[in-house]
Amino acid sequence: METESRRTGRWRGLVLSVAVLAALSAVAVMTTRWVLERTGGQGVSAPWGAECSAWVGEERFSLDRDQARRATTAAAVAVQGEDAPIGAPDTSDIPEPVMTVLEEGPQGTPGPSLTCRSTNDPSLEVQEGLEPSGLTARAEDLRVDMEGVFAGLSLGGYFPGGFDTGHGDDSAHYEGRAIDVFYRPVSEDNRRAGWVMAHWLIAHAPDYDVAVIIFDDRIWSTFYPSLGWRDYETDSDNEILRHLDHVHVDVQRGEEPSDTS
Question: Helix %, strand %, coil % for the chain, to 5?
């Protein structure tokens, strides 16, 4: 027969399990509220399921990585028209509302409509030396392919030989890892064009080891990939520092090889 002490222990274990589950649920609720407050309920990507999410109004669409790549490339081609340097990929498997919002932006005001998860690659090593452009090899590959998709880009943030002043402390620009894509002057049309670029970058982030994208008071990074586009916090009203007039993208630095000798 079950002794009184065993019954008591069993009930204590059950109560403890229920308490732990309740605590975890409370943490999940608070975390969800925090995320919603910081993102406005949009741009969040769950750490499971499809890698990418697009939203049209309140409706969310799941996309795999290949669909996101094709959708953002097709949107870039569509907005450029005859100036596009490449043809549009097939997007027959992608919902029409997704393509519309990627090309035209959300109704009312420009903003993000796509987010994807992507994390740092721990196998990457630091790239020593700069290309003639002043970029690392990884950043140079990104620059070349950006110009292969988008015609007539206004690029900056790098210089032959590299920068040592003019940017914030610890800026990736000093290491030749960052590119700025300018959309000036700040206007609704240029904001929409900037988001087309930002969406293309986030969809292709793993292909170029992208680490950070900043535009229009929003930031995405591989450090918090499931948070999607979060508020970019700065005390300045300067449109350059707020990244209102340009899309900033930097690639991962990589890790120093460990000494195994």
Answer: 40, 15, 45
